[in-house]
Design brief:
The complex is a heterodimer of chains A (260) and B (250). Chain A contains ten helices and no strands. Chain A has 260 residues and is an all-alpha fold. Chain A has two domains: 57 residues, no CATH class; 183 residues, Up-down Bundle (Multidrug efflux transporter AcrB transmembrane fold), CATH 1.20.1640. The two termini of chain B are 31 Å apart. Chain B contains eleven helices and ten strands. In chain B, α3 runs parallel beside α5, α4 crosses α5 and α8 packs across α9. A six-stranded mixed beta sheet of chain B has the order 6-7-8-3-9-10, sandwiched between helices. Chain B has a four-stranded antiparallel beta sheet with strand order 2-1-4-5, with helices on one face. The chains are: A mainly alpha (260), B alpha/beta (250). Chains A and B meet through α6 of A and α2 and α5 of B.
Chain lengths: 260, 250
């Protein structure tokens, strides 16, 4: 177990706790046993598959283009995931693709252009993954928040439209409030980091035997980049969704109400 | 004619809110009541007039000009609207008036407050701290400060107590008597009697002919019956969030 290395034996033993979870499900008749088995199996297969692929991609002997291709593949995959998680947002796939491309592109340019992390496959893949992953979550949140906001505050928006305001102006207070609420979550996470939880990258580095202060530097840089990525993302998706909720003749479209 | 509806159909998905409506509203200082039960399409008809809704088919004309040919922002500054529920914006009454017209002078703000019988001192009051009736008059003042030529009132008293209702009805009358055409949506026959110079009765998304209108006007039961169904009917009324509010007044 030196340097946090979990062997095959360790991995097998960790399944004991899955057995405990299944035992609880059976005992309390939760009916989740099959679901847990499937989840465990899928996680194992997916992670092992990714592990083997990553081993090839981040091999220093391989061309770095593989790493960039991996990142380029993650963006549309994340956009697709967003569209599945927030189907009530009009035009969600295209907008998510645009916002994720923008945030990933800009943050990648900053990270690697300014030399915060070396332009190596072993940095591009995990750092890019964290950018896209966090941006994806914020995209879902912001898209939903904008739709909810204009659905709940239809009266306010229509009162503004009825005064002759263009949609850009009539939507401003609602959009502002939605953007604020979508970004607040990431700000709170940034505030709580280190006190409430230790983020994944830092945990991994410490487990791998890196000096904690070095690990903190890496983690802090990543947190700040994520905050930037989330901000870019929230603005792009928020503005895009808002545009789609209004017609060219300045009407608020009828928003299908979703449960909850 | 102020407004002409020519074979207008409005569909929301599968629901037909207005079903081949042909009607005219004459110009000049008078109150035209759009009368009908919840879900009869009266609010939709009103919302066509400032293009918060557009017809699925058919034509709406304003003073002879098809609405498609008029800049919607200009139309909405010409045809003002007060909604079912007061919609105070954040800030003071002055802030509210300045949202409507950022260039409004202090004099102009005094004038509109006098028009709606609110004291000038209200300019510095927080808009959402006012009573329901005052808020609704504040909403009217906010609409008037944009200098509209026509006023649309979408069940403006449905959330108000009888005293505030009477005050708002008198304001509507005064504006009409001073030369402004007013379209007033109501489900309340007595209200239509008090303020209306003429009425268009809607039943199930159609303009009622004289016989049907008489039938509905004779039987208050007709209205009450329809009110009982409003949770089902509300979906074809764009202001359905407020439908609960007029239950108390009906």
């Amino acid at each position: 177990m030196e340097q946090g290395d979990v062997g095959w034996w360790g991995l097998a033993i960790s399944l004991l706790l899955v057995a405990v979870a299944i035992g609880i499900s059976m005992w309390r008749r939760l009916g989740l046993e099959q679901s847990m088995l499937v989840a465990t199996g899928r996680a194992l297969v997916q992670l092992l598959a990714v592990g083997y692929v990553l081993a090839i991609i981040i091999d220093p002997d391989q061309p770095i283009a593989y790493a960039w291709a991996w990142l380029a593949f993650m963006v549309p995959f994340a956009a697709w995931t967003v569209s599945r998680r927030a189907p009530e947002v009009p035009g969600v796939f295209g907008l998510a693709l645009a916002s994720l491309t923008a945030s990933t592109g800009i943050t990648a340019a900053v990270i690697f252009g300014l030399g915060i992390f070396p332009v190596e496959a072993r940095a591009i893949v995990p750092v890019g993954g964290m950018m896209v992953g966090n941006a994806m979550t914020s995209t879902v949140l912001a898209g939903r928040r904008v739709v909810e906001e204009f659905s709940e505050k239809r009266h306010d928006v229509e009162a503004r439209l009825a005064l002759g305001q263009p949609w850009t102006e009539a939507s401003r207070p609602g959009l502002r409030s939605a953007l604020r609420s979508a970004m607040t979550q990431q700000i709170e996470t940034t505030k709580a980091v280190g006190l409430v939880f230790l983020p994944g990258a830092m945990t991994g580095l410490i487990l791998a035997g890196v000096d904690p202060v070095d690990a903190v530097r890496v983690q802090a840089a990543i947190m700040f980049l994520i905050l930037g990525a989330v901000a870019i993302n929230v603005v792009v998706i928020g503005t895009g969704v808002t545009r789609r909720l209004f017609t060219d003749d300045h009407r608020l479209i009828r928003i299908a109400r979703t449960s909850g | 004619m102020l407004f002409e509806f020519d074979d207008v159909v409005v569909r929301f998905g599968e629901d037909v809110a207005l079903d081949h409506v042909t009607a005219q509203v004459p110009d000049g200082g008078s109150v035209t009541c759009l009368l009908g039960a919840s879900g009869s399409g009266k609010s939709t008809l009103l919302r066509l007039c400032n293009r918060l809704e557009v017809p699925t088919s058919g034509t709406v004309r304003f003073r002879g000009q098809p609405l498609d040919d008029i800049d919607p922002l200009l139309l909405r500054r010409t045809v003002g609207m007060v909604f079912q529920r007061p919609t105070p914006f954040p800030g003071t009454v002055r802030d509210n008036l300045l949202v409507a017209d950022p260039d409004a002078t202090e004099d102009a703000m005094h004038t509109v407050l006098e028009q709606v019988h609110l004291p000038v001192s209200f300019l510095d009051r927080e808009a959402d701290s006012l009573s329901g009736g005052e808020q609704q008059r504040g909403s009217l003042a906010r609409t008037l400060v944009t200098g509209p030529e026509v006023l649309l009132m979408d069940e403006p008293t449905s959330a108000l107590d009888p005293t505030s209702t009477k005050a708002l009805e008198e304001l509507g009358r005064e504006l009409a008597d001073s030369g402004m055409p007013v379209l007033w949506v109501t489900h309340d026959l007595d209200q239509a009697d008090r303020i209306g110079d003429r009425r268009i009765v809607l039943v199930g998304g159609r303009v009622a002919d004289e016989h049907q209108a008489q039938h509905y006007l004779d039987s208050e039961d007709g209205f009450h019956h329809h009110h009982g169904d409003e949770t089902h009917e509300g979906h074809d009324d764009p202001t359905e969030h407020d439908e609960g509010a007029d239950r108390g007044a009906g």
